[in-house]
Specification:
Length: 496
C-alpha cells in the first residue's frame, strides 16, 4: 500500500494550488484527479476575473481573502510565468436602483480595504469606455481588477507542484474513503478499471462539483451542492481595444447582470447567464441563456458586433446549502444559501478538510485559500513546522512565438526547428509549443488548447486540429483514432 502524509482529491485550480502549497513543507503528498488531465471542470469555464474585493460582505473570510489575494496576484503569476492583465473594472448602471447597488459596493469595498475605488458620473465613464451605452448614469471604478486565463494558472500550479515533488495520479477517482488508524484508506479507481488503495494521514478535499459527495464518504450529510448552469460568449480577438476594462453591468431589474471581460489573449468574454439544472456533468449551453447574453450585450454596449462571436460554452455554478433530514430517509436543503467560502473541518476528525461549493471569487482567492487551508490541515496532523527550504516557487512557461520579437523567434527556431513551423495560424502557435505541451502532460486536443492556445482563434481549430491530432498520436505513441478531444469517449475520429 502506498502511504502519504496528505492526499489532495481533485485537480481543478484549487487542488493544484493546494498541491503546490503543500510542497512548501516537507510532506509526502499525492494529487488524485479522476479525469485524464487537470483543470477540466469549473476551472476551464468561468468568467476569468481577478476581483478587487468590493463585492463581498465586510468581515467575512471571502471579503478578507479576496482583497489580500488581489494584491498578491501579480507576484504569483510572475512566479508561475502566467500572463495577467490588471485592466481595472467599471461597474455601471443606468438607473436609480443600480446607483444604490453601486453606492453599497463602494462602502463595502472601502471597509474591505480595496484601494483606488472611485464613483464616476456618466460622462467620466464614457470617457474611459466610449463604446458603452450613452444611457449610463454612474460607474464604480476599481483599478485593481484584472483578468487571467484560469486553466493556464491552474496548470502552471500543477506543474510547479509536480516539479517540487508532489506525486500526480491522473485518471484516478476516489470512490471510497475509510478512517483507518490515525489516517484514511482511500480507494482509487484508476482509468475506470483498476482499484488501488492508498493511505494518507490527512485529506484535502478539493473535488469541485463533487466535493460534497467525497465528504459524505466519511461523514453524514451536512452541506450539499445544488447547481445552476451558466452560458458564455467569446468574441474574436479582432475586437481587441473595443473595451479596455472589465465591465460589470448592473441592470435595473433584480436578477443576473452581465460581465464583459477584455481577456488576456485579446478576446472579449461575455457572461454569465443563470439557468436551472442539477446535472453536474452537463456543460451544455442553453438557447435561453445565449439569448439573454445577446440581449444584455445590446443594452450595455449597443455597438458590440454580435457577428464577431466565435464560440459559446456552458459552465456549472455550485451553490452550497446546509441540508437536513427530509423525514423520508433523504435530505433537503435549508432555505438560506451559504454566501461565504465553505471550509469544512470536523472537530472530531480535523485531518480532513473539504472545500465545498467554492465559486466567485474562487479563482482570485485560489492561492490564499490554499495557504489558509493547508496551514489548518498541517496544524491538525502536526506537520505545520516542517518547512521545505528547497521549495522552488518558479515554473517556466512554454515559450510562445506569438509574444516574441522577430529576432527572438529566429533564435528560438534556430535552437529548435519545430518552433519555426506554424500549426495554428489564428494564434501563431508552433509545432514546438504543441510538442512541449504534450511532454508536460497534455493528452487531448483540448489539453493542447489550454496549454498553448492552439484552436482558440477565429476558426476554432478548423485549420489546425488535424495536425494537432497527428502530433498527439506521434508523441503519445497511439493511433489518430485513439486521440480524444476532451474526456472519456470524446474521440476525434470515429469508425463508421
Amino acid at each position: 500500500m502506498f502511504r502519504y502524509d496528505v492526499c489532495v482529491i481533485g485537480g481543478g485550480i484549487l487542488g493544484c494550488m493546494v498541491a503546490r502549497e503543500l510542497m512548501k513543507y516537507r510532506v509526502k503528498a499525492v494529487l488524485a484527479e479522476k479525469r485524464e488531465d487537470v483543470c477540466t471542470g469549473m476551472t476551464r469555464a468561468n468568467t476569468a476575473v481577478v476581483y478587487a474585493g468590493y463585492d463581498h460582505k465586510p468581515g467575512t473570510l471571502k471579503g478578507k481573502l479576496c482583497a489580500e489575494a488581489n494584491q498578491d496576484f501579480e507576484r504569483m503569476c510572475r512566479e508561475l510565468e502566467v500572463p495577467m492583465k490588471r485592466c481595472g473594472s467599471l461597474m455601471v448602471c443606468f438607473g436609480a436602483r443600480g446607483e444604490q447597488v453601486l453606492e453599497r459596493k463602494l462602502a463595502d469595498g472601502r471597509r474591505n480595504g480595496v484601494p483606488g475605488l472611485a464613483m464616476l458620473d456618466g460622462a467620466a465613464v464614457l470617457e474611459m469606455e466610449p463604446n458603452l451605452s450613452p444611457q449610463v448614469r454612474k460607474g464604480l471604478y476599481a483599478p485593481t481588477t484584472g483578468t487571467v486565463n484560469p486553466w493556464e494558472l491552474g496548470i502552471a500550479a500543477f506543474e510547479n507542484a509536480r516539479d517540487n515533488g508532489c506525486e500526480m495520479r491522473l485518471g484516478a477517482e476516489a470512490v471510497a474513503i475509510r478512517r483507518q488508524g490515525d489516517g484514511f484508506e482511500i480507494e482509487l479507481l484508476e482509468n475506470n478499471t483498476v482499484s488501488q488503495v492508498i493511505w494518507a494521514k490527512g485529506i484535502m478535499n478539493c473535488a469541485g462539483l463533487h466535493a460534497d459527495t467525497v465528504r459524505e464518504m466519511v461523514f453524514p450529510p451536512k452541506i450539499r451542492i445544488f447547481t445552476q448552469r451558466a452560458d458564455y460568449l467569446v468574441f474574436d480577438d479582432q475586437l481587441q481595444g473595443f473595451l479596455n476594462h472589465v465591465i460589470f453591468y448592473e441592470p435595473e431589474e433584480k436578477g443576473k447582470g452581465l460581465t464583459l471581460v477584455p481577456a488576456v489573449d485579446g478576446n472579449i468574454l461575455a457572461g454569465a447567464s443563470k439557468q436551472g439544472g442539477e446535472d453536474r456533468e452537463c456543460f451544455k449551453t442553453t438557447p435561453e441563456g445565449l439569448a439573454f447574453l445577446s440581449k444584455m450585450c445590446r443594452e450595455a454596449v449597443p455597438g458590440l458586433p454580435m457577428d464577431q462571436v466565435i464560440r459559446n460554452f456552458g459552465s456549472i455554478r455550485p451553490n452550497p446549502f446546509e441540508v437536513e433530514p427530509d423525514g423520508r430517509g433523504g435530505y433537503q436543503k435549508k432555505d438560506r444559501r451559504i454566501r461565504s467560502f465553505v471550509i469544512e473541518q470536523e472537530r472530531e476528525c480535523p485531518s480532513m478538510i473539504s472545500l465545498i461549493g467554492v465559486k466567485t471569487p474562487g479563482l482570485t482567492c485560489s492561492g490564499k485559500l490554499a495557504e489558509y487551508t493547508v496551514r489548518k490541515l498541517l496544524d491538525a496532523i502536526g506537520m505545520a513546522d516542517w518547512k521545505n527550504e528547497a521549495f522552488c516557487p518558479k515554473r517556466r512557461g512554454i515559450p510562445k512565438i506569438a509574444q516574441m520579437s522577430f529576432e527572438q523567434r529566429r533564435k528560438q527556431a534556430k535552437q529548435n526547428p519545430d518552433y519555426g513551423k506554424i500549426v495554428c495560424c489564428c494564434r501563431k502557435v508552433t509545432e514546438g509549443e504543441i510538442r512541449e505541451a504534450i511532454r508536460r502532460g497534455a493528452v487531448t486536443v483540448d489539453g493542447i488548447k489550454r496549454r498553448c492556445g492552439a484552436g482558440m482563434g477565429r476558426c476554432q481549430g478548423g485549420r489546425c486540429e488535424q495536425r494537432v491530432v497527428e502530433l498527439l498520436a506521434e508523441e503519445l505513441s497511439i493511433s489518430p483514432g485513439q486521440v480524444k478531444k476532451d474526456g472519456p469517449e470524446s474521440f476525434v475520429f470515429r469508425s463508421i
